[in-house]
Design a protein that fits this description.
By secondary structure, this protein is α/β, with parallel strands linked by helices. Helices cover 48% and strands 13% of the residues. InterPro entries: Glyco_trans_2-like, Glyco_trans_2_hopen-assoc_HpnB, Nucleotide-diphossugar_trans.
Length: 401
């Protein structure tokens, strides 16, 4: 029995050594959009598309932040009122009117949701169609109604895309992290996302890893047309990563190097932001739980086998180290205890940069095992909801795609 315990904790330790040294430095927080002075010879036109469903409370701040961008080029906003019942459209128009920027805002009334589309993507599709029909912009800024943008955000996104010939630039905006449950679980949400999609690999055109964060995506209109538009991902619940994968996986002659006979490898970039942030509040455990449970099983392609593997993997990687320390110390098997402690320390070391990024107490870095236990239960609940026909529930809609 002692040999089995030792073997298990050694495997856990080896996994953490491999993650820290071989997995794209996912634990680093250095992939940020630099806020520096930029000068563009050409100022591309941009249209923002905002799907909004019952967002009247947040729009006075979030829409205002877009209307007040310091971008000197052509910038127009298309807000799609997705069957709201709280006066979202009226609040949007009042916000623009208060800033004397009525001409910059177009409010689009969403049509009925057709079969085979998720609500958000259908709203975005209508906004994109309206924007490209009226203005034919060079770029589309796809953003959520709960995002408060830094005044220089759009200028920096466009500069990044232009200077590095990127097809897609996305920011994992700073999520709200104020109360107990947010501090306990939100930094880990971003940490786990980075572990699934190491940002350095996402940003490497030679690697197939692709991801984006739906709260803030700047995409070339030509690149979106090249993949066939949002219609190709119309059923995706994890639409941001599906869009990034579609963009990065297409091979075509480069639109930026027309004399080159070589195929263009689409380039995308994903990073963190400390200045553009989400105002979405998570007042208790329940909304965070629902956020994760909504798509966790989708991430596993609705596979029971992958679910079992994930549950076992979460236990082995996150729960075994502290258990090894406790069991080893209680039985005076100091080799097991020391190995478990070493794995726990490596785990905490990996989580520490994200804890610092979110300005949380440093001791939270040692709480990753209990945090991971919560996420393991959320993942299991996600599968149960799917099997019960409640999967993908969001804002009054349930998607079983």
């Amino acid at each position: 029995m002692e040999k089995i315990e030792l073997a298990i904790v050694i495997v856990s330790l080896l996994i953490w050594i491999a993650l820290l040294t071989l997995w794209g430095q996912f634990w680093q927080t250095d992939q940020e959009l630099e806020v520096t002075e930029t000068h563009l010879e050409k100022l591309p036109s941009v249209c923002a598309v905002i799907p909004a469903r019952n967002e009247a409370d947040l729009l006075p701040k979030t829409l205002r932040s877009l209307l007040c961008q310091n971008y000197p080029g052509s910038f127009t906003i298309f807000l799609v009122d997705d069957h709201s019942t709280d006066g979202t459209a009226e609040v949007a128009q009042q916000t623009a009117q208060a800033l004397n920027k009525n001409q910059q805002l177009h409010v689009v009334t969403a049509q009925a949701l057709p079969p085979g589309w998720s609500g958000k993507l259908w709203a975005m599709e209508q906004g994109i169609n309206k924007a490209t029909t009226i203005l034919e912009p060079d770029y589309l800024l796809l953003t959520d109604a709960d995002i408060e943008h830094d005044p220089v955000n759009l200028h920096q996104l466009v500069a990044k895309a232009e200077q590095e010939n990127l097809d897609l630039v996305s920011l994992m905006v700073r999520l709200r992290c104020e109360n107990f449950w947010e501090k306990l679980l939100i930094p880990a949400f971003v940490f786990f996302f980075q572990k699934l999609y190491p940002f350095r690999w996402v940003n490497d055109p030679q690697k197939s890893t692709a991801a984006a964060a739906g709260g803030c995506i700047l995409i070339r209109t030509a690149a979106l047309k090249r993949i066939g538009g949002l219609q190709v991902i119309r059923q995706a619940l994890i639409d941001d990563c599906a869009l990034a994968h579609a963009i990065k996986s297409v091979k075509s002659p480069s639109p930026y190097l027309p004399t080159s006979p070589l195929p263009h490898s689409p380039k995308i970039w994903l990073g963190l932001s400390s200045s553009t942030h989400s105002l979405r509040a998570y007042s208790s455990l329940s909304p965070i739980w629902d956020m994760v449970a909504r798509t966790a099983f989708t991430q596993l392609h609705y596979s029971p086998l992958l679910l079992v593997g994930t549950l076992v993997g979460m236990i082995l990687v996150y729960i075994v180290p502290p258990l090894g320390l406790i069991v080893g110390a209680s039985t005076e098997n100091w080799l097991v205890a020391l190995t478990g402690l070493s794995a726990w320390l490596l785990m905490s070391l990996a989580y520490l940069p994200m804890v610092r990024f979110y300005e949380c107490p440093l001791w939270l870095a040692f709480c990753l095992p209990i945090i991971a236990f919560f996420y393991t239960l959320m993942t299991l609940d996600s599968a149960l909801r799917y099997w019960q026909g409640r999967g993908g529930a969001w804002k009054g809609r349930v998607y079983r795609l």
